[in-house]
């Protein structure tokens, strides 16, 4: 039985990944600070599964790493501060938490396990905004930080720093590393700070007029099941070692206005619509070039946008009814 260590395993992508690893026959150790997910019934079920160990730890604290198991074959670093509201509210915390966690991982590593580092398309958003890189975007474009003083860009800076730390540090420690840059991953249990669940909650709450920020912007959304499949294929591909690889869905680009129409139709409502400017530093268009991912793994996305959005709405409808969930106050979901 292969053993995996999932750092941030109670988070959105992390928990979906853990459940898939368990289904594939892995023994898994989940490490999280449980800033979210502590009472999640799916986390509780994993605790009682017999093949998952769950540890609560602050990964910015160096001594906490001494409690982590070393007899693992794979390490996945998904722990991070994410979400536009969190980033803009306290960019210094984002930089501190995300870079310290990556630094401590490098210091903790010993020869042997293969490591996956979770990064983001935000690292090259500056180039997209400036019009200096193509869309769909390959991995080898120059990265540009347009303004180091911009609070929103703190997340991109922290992830770019993490990429460099892992690519150089893990290799120096005798470990192979794969960097995966996620592109607009969505699905059940992703919180309320992302555009699809945020729109869904406002639609179910009966907002009228229904506000849409950046209606003319384009995105290529990737369902979390497809994202997890891509991660596991990369971790199994020998040629992926030392590579930065985009993870997403390039088959269905949609603009935000059409996304809103889809969400409203699936929610069964027809409010008036109010168009508003896009959030600051939100790029006009984002879509990954998946040539490298396909070449390395043969991956193809399988969850159509309408099917994925329907599944997501169904989950949030149930969550809203049982947990008294409410939509964010300002309604500007992360793009």
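Sequence proposed for the structure above (335 residues):
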């Amino acid at each position: 039985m292969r053993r995996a260590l999932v750092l941030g395993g109670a988070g959105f992508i992390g928990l979906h990944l853990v459940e898939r690893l368990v289904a594939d026959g892995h023994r898994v150790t989940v490490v999280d600070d449980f800033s979210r997910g502590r009472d999640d019934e799916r986390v509780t079920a994993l605790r009682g599964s017999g093949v998952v160990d769950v540890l609560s730890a602050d990964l910015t604290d160096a001594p906490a790493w001494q409690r982590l198991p070393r007899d693992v074959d794979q390490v996945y670093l998904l722990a991070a501060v994410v979400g536009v509201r969190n980033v803009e509210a306290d960019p210094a915390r984002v930089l501190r938490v995300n870079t310290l966690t990556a630094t401590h991982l490098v210091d903790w590593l010993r020869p042997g396990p293969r490591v996956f580092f979770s990064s983001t398309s935000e690292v090259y958003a500056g180039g997209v905004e400036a019009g200096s890189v193509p869309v769909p975007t390959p991995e080898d474009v120059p990265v540009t930080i347009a303004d180091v003083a911009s609070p929103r860009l703190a997340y991109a800076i922290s992830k770019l720093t993490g990429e460099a730390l892992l690519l150089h540090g893990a290799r120096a420690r005798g470990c192979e590393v794969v960097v995966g840059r996620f592109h607009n991953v969505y699905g059940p249990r992703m919180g309320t700070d992302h555009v699809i669940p945020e729109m869904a909650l406002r639609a179910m709450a009966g907002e009228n007029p229904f506000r849409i920020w950046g209606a003319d912007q384009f995105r290529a959304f990737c369902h979390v099941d497809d994202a997890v499949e891509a991660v596991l294929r990369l971790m199994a591909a020998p040629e992926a070692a030392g590579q930065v690889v985009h993870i997403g869905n390039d088959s269905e680009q949609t603009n935000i206005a059409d996304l809103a129409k889809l969400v409203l139709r699936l929610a069964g409502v027809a409010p008036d619509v109010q168009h508003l400017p896009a959030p600051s530093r939100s790029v006009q268009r984002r879509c990954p070039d998946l040539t490298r991912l396909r070449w390395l793994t043969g991956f193809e996305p399988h969850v159509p946008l309408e099917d994925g959005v329907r599944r997501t709405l169904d989950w949030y409808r149930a969550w809203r009814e049982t947990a008294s969930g409410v939509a964010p106050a300002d309604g500007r979901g992360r793009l």
